[in-house]
């Protein structure tokens, strides 16, 4: 069994296990929605080396597009979601095309500037987006015989989409395209000297990431029935980045772990103390200081520690991950 297959099986186990251990279908759905967004972010950060603060743009646009489509047109849910994916990909292509003209901190500043630009557009055009109040009363239509009104029925719908998206992203990451992104991340100048069209690869990675993040935003709006202004705020970009880093970069299943950890721990801490963000901030400091490879790196170290010493010495290749 190769690593991609193992990671897909682990993702499927998470999707099946969440209803068994969580009482809230809404919270379980949020885990998978943010797992998709974090996986898309990981394609940029972990595989391409691009620290983008623009992921909230695509998440928010996905929310608005699906909401406006369902509220003002008779189109079915499938087409509304498809529009969110397409708009996310198109806007991400434009943002990526402009942002990758600069590198390092200037690239980060450009993505942050775009995030603020789209936020104030959404805030200004209140007649379209609802402004501070958000886009309200977004319906959740049924899909054929599948009735999505209950939270767990909608979770099943999201779980199917999540597994399809995860498998697709795994296929992309393990393909020649994905390996080329890793080469660009490790040594961009050498990749360019070999003859790879670096700009094209980066823009394509942006487009794929934007499409998946737009899908996640659409599913989130359908989950809560609102497309809030906070979905397109730069804080959303920060949250998605934090989930990605907590889980571990360069591994798509790690993003699932990061999203699950962030969503569930945030929910638990909010019931303990109104100023729970202070507790979450302290927890993130611990992660940054002592778990620089994220939860996935911690899991790998635990597995190595539990292996018999003789088996580790005889069968483990130097530098090779156990998973």
From TrEMBL:
Membrane topology field: Multi-pass membrane protein
Segment forming the signal sequence: none
Chief site of localization: membrane
Transmembrane segments: 44-67, 79-100, 106-125, 146-169, 205-229, 241-264, 276-299
Entries under CDD domains matching the protein: TM_PBP1_LivM_like (cd06581)
Keywords for the protein's UniProt record, in alphabetical order: Cell membrane, Membrane, Transmembrane, Transmembrane helix
Molecular function, one GO term: branched-chain amino acid transmembrane transporter activity
GO CC terms: plasma membrane
Subcellular location: Cell membrane
Protein name: Branched-chain amino acid ABC transporter permease
């Amino acid at each position: 069994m190769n690593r991609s297959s193992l990671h897909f099986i682990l993702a499927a186990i998470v999707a099946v296990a969440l209803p068994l251990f969580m009482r809230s279908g809404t919270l379980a759905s949020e885990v998978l929605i943010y797992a998709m967004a974090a996986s898309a972010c990981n394609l940029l950060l972990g595989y391409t080396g691009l620290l983008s603060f623009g992921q909230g743009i695509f998440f928010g646009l996905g929310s608005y597009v699906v909401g406006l489509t369902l509220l003002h047109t008779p189109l079915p849910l499938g087409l509304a979601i498809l529009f969110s994916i397409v708009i996310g990909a198109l806007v991400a292509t434009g943002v990526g095309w402009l942002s990758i003209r600069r590198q390092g901190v200037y690239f980060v500043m450009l993505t942050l500037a775009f995030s603020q630009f789209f936020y104030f557009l959404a805030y200004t055009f209140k007649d379209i987006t609802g402004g501070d109040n958000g886009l309200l009363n977004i319906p959740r239509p049924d899909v054929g015989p599948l009735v999505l009104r209950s939270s767990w029925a909608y979770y099943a719908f999201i779980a199917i989409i999540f597994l399809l998206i995860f498998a697709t992203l795994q296929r992309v990451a393990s393909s020649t395209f994905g390996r080329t992104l890793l080469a660009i991340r490790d040594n961009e100048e050498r990749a360019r000297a070999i003859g790879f069209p670096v700009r094209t690869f980066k823009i394509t990675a942006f487009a794929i990431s934007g499409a998946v993040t737009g899908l996640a935003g659409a599913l989130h709006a359908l989950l809560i029935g609102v497309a809030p202004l906070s979905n397109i705020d730069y804080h959303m970009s920060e949250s998605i980045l934090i989930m990605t880093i907590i889980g571990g970069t360069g591994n798509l299943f790690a993003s699932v772990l990061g999203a699950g950890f962030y969503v569930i721990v945030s929910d638990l801490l909010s019931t303990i103390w109104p100023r729970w963000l202070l507790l979450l901030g302290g927890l993130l400091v611990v992660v940054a200081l002592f778990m620089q490879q994220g939860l996935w790196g911690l899991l790998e170290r635990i597995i190595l520690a539990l292996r018999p010493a003789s088996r580790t010495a005889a069968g483990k290749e130097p530098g090779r991950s156990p998973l």
